[in-house]
Amino acid sequence: MLRRTMMKAAAAAAAIVAAPAIAQSTTEIVVEYSIPDLFKALHEEIAREFMKANPQYKITFRAPQPGYEEITQSVLRAAVTNTLPDVAYHGLNRQRIFVDRGIVQPLDGFIAADTQFKEFGHAPGLLDIGKVKGKQYGIGFSLSTPIIYVNGDLVEKAGGNLAALPATWDGIFELARKIKALGGNTQGFHFDWDITGNWMFQALVFSNGGTMLSADEKKVTFDGDAGKQAIATLSRMVKEGTMRDVAQSVALQDFTSGTMGIWGHSTSRLGGVTKQVGDKFKLRTAAFPTTANGRLPMGGNTAMLFAKDPAKQKAAWDYIKFATGPIGATMMVKATGYFPSALKVADDPALLKDFYAANPNHLVAMKQLPKATGWYAFPGENGLKITDVIKDHLQSVVAQKAEPMTALAAMSKEVQALLPA
Question: For the whole model, what pTM was predicted?
Fold first, then answer.
């Protein structure tokens, strides 16, 4: 009896000693992301599925940042205090700042050694958006192009044709005026020009065949003909297109409530907007107007690896691969309006083929991929400041406090002064 009691006690003691060892065998992966209204529920769902399939890992999220600029600043501060997350999701135009400062890890070695990753069907061109200076630093998580959202009911009431929506700004402004003329609290048009990182202004410049800087990144070029056309179009949105100087949240509410006819935004909101609209009205999407040689900046974010410890790096890579692979991509597309880097899932009947067939509005952004180009990131220490300078001058045009060409000249001069010598 005594012997059995001692054996039980020894076993219990061993269990107590073993418990911490088991707990310690779980590798924690610290993750940071932004724009929680779009991504919080999605990231948490992906993490649950990842941990279910990989019980040896534990995902811990830091408090999400409001936007791409804020998470950039957060991770830069973390680099100074040696508290970097293992993985962070950054806007396409904010990748180079981490490469320039040497605080992010290249992924080329992981990709080369991972045979499964090659089977996921990441489109080569979409993988390239995560490359900086010839090396792979990010894997596309959620990707987008700018599109036009349309309230089909208001368009038809105003005499428009849903089967032949306008493909030019002139046509959009004309239709917007007719919708506004319906009266009441009906609004004709809004364009979310102030999306993070000057993305929509870049869309206006690139869609007219322009660039932001010269090839050597020494001189401003957005003050050329394409830039003049871009800022003139922004001004016309107010003067001819019925656009008000209101926040993005107001425009979103107006559109989803059914009181606004045409809305220019990213495809990123399509999933949420579709759910909010429900059966209130016929929701349609249309291509962003471009000239024959026009391009469109690709938006969205990539997953980037910041862990320094080799074991943490392996864990972080496994998580990145899952989040950007077939399972994560399928969840992401269904929850948002973005499209994935792993385009193969779009043709897989077990994943997204049926979804895209039933939701043709989601295809508009993907059809614009042949026109896609990079979301431009300004070089040097003043990259973030430059986007603020541009935003301030664009605001003066939207508020009708400055003439477009005057604002463009001042903006060009200030940005030129902030470029690296």
Answer: 0.88
